[in-house]
Amino acid sequence: MKIEPSTALPVRHERELIGLQLETDPEAGFLLWSRRMDAMLQASDYDGCCQLLAEMKQFLASGRGQPAPAFLRVVRSAQGRVFAYLGEFQEAIAAFEQGVALARHSDDPEHLALALGDLGNAHTLAGNIEQATACHEQALVVLRSSGNTSALATTLVNLGSNYRDGGRTDQARQCFEEAVNLAGVRLDTRAMAMTNLAVLLHKQEQWDEAERAYRESLRLFAELGDERSLAQATGHLGAMYLDSGRPEDAIPLLLQDLKMLQVLGDLIGQAQTLNNLGMAAGQLGELDEAARLYESALLLQQGLGDGRNALVTTTNLAILHLRSGKNQVAGVLLVQASILAGDLGDQERLVQIEQLRAQLG
Fold first, then answer.
1. Is the distance from CB of 75 to CB of 98 less than 8 angstroms?
2. Is 45 helix (H, G, I), strand (E, B) or coil?
3. How does DSSP classify residue 48?
4. Side-chain-side CA neighbours of residue 313 (13 Å)
5. What is the C-alpha to C-alpha distance for residues 282 and 300, in angstroms, rounded to an integer?
6. What is the per-residue pLDDT across 304-354, written as a single tens digit (0 to 9) for each?
7. For 207-260, how does the pLDDT look when each residue is reduced to its tens digit (9 = 90+)?
8. CA-to-CA distance for 239 and 289, rounded, in angstroms?
9. DSSP assigned state of 106
10. DSSP 3-state helix, strand, coil percentages of the chain (rounded to 5)?
11. Model confidence at 51, in pLDDT bands (50, 70, 90)?
12. Is 144 helix (H, G, I), strand (E, B) or coil?
């Protein structure tokens, strides 16, 4: 008897059905388990994922069923994604490497490409850019002959991000542009590719092209109804206007971004946007307003324990007070910034702080 998963069932009862199915028809049980795991991963229910993985580990150890290698790859992929979520990147890499080894013995090249993509993403999170690039390059070769346009576009975006982080900006741009222009690409994948292209053009100070790409990503995210990504892209465009010396254009976008982030409850994002609004006010010569905005951002960052961004805001506030001639206040802030930078091991920021302290006289 084959039991189909039901979203109407309580999770505990569904797990009981999975256990029963594994005992009576392991092949169908593996399918049911895979579907439930996929649903939990999509919902970011990592506690539920851990329970399912523990139950499957116990079942496999009992020797009562012999799953196909394709299913074991699914298990390893799930393990890797949970480890990555927990920040245990070496464990994630080990799980994904096992998934790649299993996929190499399958007759489905797309399984291999997906496994390589998982491994590449884990290496990216761990900061292993060369290894990540190699994985995504291998996946790309496999997918070019597969006909899976969606997977190809996603891999191009991941590889482009690796190229960008590795300083290979021309190759990164080629990847992002190919992903954007592929026929039949899902709208969310196209939006992701367009955003990455916009960020790259922004960093290269190609302002007109970056603006067009950001505007298109905004349109795509609005069409998708993806409020979080829409807020992020709105903030990116506002920051681009700041970097290109257009604070009057940045402020309306940053205020819009702040409202969206407040609805989403994203405190980290709110603090970053307040910091950018402070920069915009400072560029316009509204120094008191800039100080108020920086202080609001800093209050949020300190409450969140966000030391790295608090360091940026503290430094910005110190520079503002130096500019206003309030050297004593600036000096106190620079001491605080120096302590934060030391705790974080940020040598570049420490050098900047010492240069600023030399201006105190």
1. no
2. coil
3. H
4. 28
5. 20
6. 999 999 999 999 999 999 999 999 999 999 999 999 999 999 999 999 999
7. 999 999 999 999 999 999 999 999 999 999 999 999 999 999 999 999 999 999
8. 18
9. S
10. 80, 0, 20
11. confident
12. coil
Record the tokens describing residue 343, joined without a space: 């705790």
User: Are the C-beta atoms of 188 and 224 separated by less than 8 Å?
Assistant: yes
Model pTM above 0.70: yes
CA angle 186, 159, 111 (to 5 degrees): 65
- Diameter of the chain measured on Cα atoms: 83
Contact residues for 174 (Cβ-Cβ < 8 A; gap 6+) = 160
What is the C-alpha separation between 349 and 38, in angstroms, rounded? 42
Type of residue at 58: Q
Q: Which residues contact 331 (CB under 8 A, 6 or more apart)?
A: 357, 360
What letter represents residue 89's amino acid? F
pLDDT for 149 beyond 60: yes
Token pair recorded at residue 288: 């008191």
Phi, psi of 208, deg, nearest 5: -65, -45
C-alpha dihedral, 288 to 291 to 297 to 300, nearest 10°: -100
43 CB-contact burial (10 Å; exposed 0-12 / middle 13-18 / buried 19+): exposed
For tokens 């079942």, name the residue: 59
The string of pLDDT tens digits covering residues 283-296 is 999 999 999 999 99
For residue 306, the one-letter residue type is D
How many whole angstroms separate alpha carbon 355 and alpha carbon 314? 15
- Cα–Cα distance measured from residue 195 to residue 236, given in angstroms and rounded to the nearest whole number: 9
